[in-house]
């Protein structure tokens, strides 16, 4: 889904001013195969490979948002297992001049069902990758995947 309606309504009032938003990064891991596989998507807006990411809707718990985004963007049903990290991302300036900054909740999710595909137009590709052959990703997403693949533990917080 493109920009959520509630953000479009806010933008009508504040224009391109910096908007503080709750976000999620969903690292989906399929451990049903001999070697775990990680779900990655290629974003339609910038061509970069990432785990599934998204914006938390008003009143929505972040873990529910992560599960929803995975289903909407990649056609995969998955369940959150643990909170990996919480950090501030951005600010980001979009092509139209809008500016946002996110408090990102990164979750490790367990794969349940579905075949990955670009389900809603936000991505051009979706697929499974072994941890030792991930597509190129920025440092933040590489770190998120490695943390999600580790044994569950307390969430990591940036300071």
Automatic annotation (TrEMBL):
Q: Please list the cofactors this protein needs.
A: Mg(2+)
Q: Which GO terms describe its molecular function?
A: hydrolase activity
Q: Which SUPFAM superfamilies match?
A: Nudix (SSF55811)
- Coiled-coil spans are none
Does the keyword Signal feature in the UniProt annotation?
no
Which keywords does the record carry? Hydrolase
Pfam families, per database record: NUDIX
Entry keyword annotation includes Hydrolase = yes
Which protein are we looking at? ADP-ribose pyrophosphatase
Q: Which organism is it from?
A: Enemella evansiae
């Amino acid at each position: 889904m493109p920009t959520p309606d509630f953000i479009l309504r806010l933008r009508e009032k504040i224009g391109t001013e910096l908007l503080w938003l709750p976000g999620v990064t969903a690292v989906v891991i399929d451990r049903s195969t001999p070697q775990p596989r990680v779900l990655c998507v290629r974003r339609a807006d910038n061509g970069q490979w990432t785990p599934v990411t998204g914006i938390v809707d008003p009143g929505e718990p972040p873990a529910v948002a992560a599960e929803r985004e995975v289903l909407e963007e990649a056609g995969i049903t998955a369940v959150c297992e643990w909170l990996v990290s919480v950090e501030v991302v951005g600010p980001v300036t979009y092509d139209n001049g809008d500016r946002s900054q996110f408090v990102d909740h990164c979750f490790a999710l367990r794969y349940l069902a579905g075949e990955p595909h670009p389900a809603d137009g936000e991505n051009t590709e979706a697929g499974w990758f072994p941890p030792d052959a991930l597509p190129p990703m920025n440092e933040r997403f590489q770190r998120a995947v490695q943390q999600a693949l580790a044994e569950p533990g307390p969430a990591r917080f940036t300071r």
